[in-house]
Design brief:
CATH architecture of the largest domain: Up-down Bundle
Strand content: under 5%
Radius of gyration: 28 Å
Largest sheet: none
Order of helices and strands: HHHHHHHHHH
Number of domains: 2
């Protein structure tokens, strides 16, 4: 490889190295941005990372098209880093989705016991700890201040993960339907969806395990079965 190629590889390696967190790990997200240390480091070194990526792309392409390719790679890296979801935010989103069926089921049981929606939400938030309960606690606070429940649940419907609960309760309050039945129906739907997701992930494990097993068994099959057969045929032809 030419020195220019090695320099391009070094620039690309340095750019990729900026993604790896070299800072002390913190417990939980940072208070300012809600992102973990890795995401904060990526955004802090965003210009340098894009510069190295663009330089590596320009040196790799070379010629007159090199500067154009470098600019395109740098712009693409800038956009990709800006749109990348922080690992801490992704973990919180996944945890909210996992906790939502249990949260809605407990809310349905509390409402079935005769509690008002605001009191039921407060009880659920106190019983369950996690990102889902933290988001729902804001709803309980607004209801306690006397905000119109329809507006509160419509605001909750804008939450990406808690939107099903917000839409269900907003429709129930707007139409005068039974809140208990709406929440119970939603709890059943979320439970069925959670079971379907678990079954789908279980089926995907076998598919994902097939490729490593194939990569391990195929060379052994070639060495043990094909190579001796070919060697025997070649020896027979030589005789």
């Amino acid at each position: 490889m030419s020195p220019t190629g090695w320099l391009a590889v070094a620039c690309a390696a340095n750019a990729a190295g900026l993604v790896v967190p070299h800072w002390p790990r913190l417990r939980g997200p940072t208070p300012a941005t809600g992102a973990g240390p890795a995401a904060t480091g990526m955004l802090r070194h965003r210009p340098l990372w894009c510069l190295l990526a663009g330089l590596g792309g320009a040196l790799f392409v070379g010629g007159r098209a090199g500067p154009v390719a470098g600019v395109l790679v740098a712009v693409g890296a800038w956009v990709a880093v800006g749109r990348a979801e922080p690992p801490a935010a992704r973990r919180r989103r996944e945890q909210v989705r996992r906790d939502l069926p249990q949260l809605v089921g407990l809310l349905a049981s509390t409402l079935r016991g005769g509690a008002a929606p605001g009191d039921a939400v407060a009880v659920v938030c106190a019983a369950l700890q996690g990102p889902a309960a933290d988001r729902l606690a804001r709803v309980a606070a607004r209801l306690a201040l006397g905000v119109d429940p329809v507006l509160v649940w419509q605001g909750l419907a804008e939450d990406p993960e808690l939107a099903p609960l917000g839409r269900s309760l907003a429709r129930a309050h707007a139409s005068g339907a039974s809140v208990v039945r709406s929440v119970e129906r939603l709890a059943d739907e979320l439970a069925q969806r959670a079971r379907a997701d678990v079954e789908e992930r279980a089926r995907a494990v076998g598919v994902k395990a097939a490729l490593p097993l194939g990569l391990c068994l195929l060379p052994a099959f070639v060495l043990i079965g094909i190579v001796p057969l070919v060697a025997a045929l070649l020896s027979t032809l030589a005789l």
